[in-house]
Amino acid sequence: MAIEKPLFMKILSRTDIKARLSIPTKKKRCFLNFQNRHQVEFKVKDENGKDWVFCCSIRKKKGYRKPVLSKGWLPFVRCWKLEIGDVVRVYRMMDKDGKEYYRIEVIKRRDSPLVRNHDAEEPSALAVASYGDVEEEAYEVGGEFLMNA
């Protein structure tokens, strides 16, 4: 049986589905090891068992070094028909042999247990709450604050 560690979850914004996924990070620290590089590729397995290769990058200049997924992300968005308000969760997995890999889960907004105001055009990020190494984003939509259930 695999051991699963939640890394982050994100309610997708317009930018996330049209250009790149901005990864929520605690204190701008990413779960990936960049080893003094500005980008790193990593494999993620989706719920159907398909492997995806994403490129995660940070800006070379100091300052705002928030990590983003670019290469490989938009084909994933198209394949899963992701929309604004859908949720992605990323997990670090370890199989019984000790091999580590990443898993991505998609929750379509129509299936999401989150309460939504459908009059709102797009959720806006409010905060990132951390519990140890696990991060969750809270959003304000139509005056209500949303987090994953």
Automatic annotation (TrEMBL):
UniProt keywords, alphabetically: DNA-binding, Nucleus, Transcription, Transcription regulation
Stretches assigned to the TF-B3 domain: 6-110
Localisation: Nucleus
InterPro entries cross-referenced by the UniProt entry: B3_DNA-bd, DNA-bd_pseudobarrel_sf, LEC2-like
Main location class: nucleus
Gene3D superfamilies: DNA-binding pseudobarrel domain
Pfam families: B3 (PF02362)
PROSITE patterns: B3
Protein name in UniProt: TF-B3 domain-containing protein
Organismal lineage: Eukaryota, Viridiplantae, Streptophyta, Embryophyta, Tracheophyta
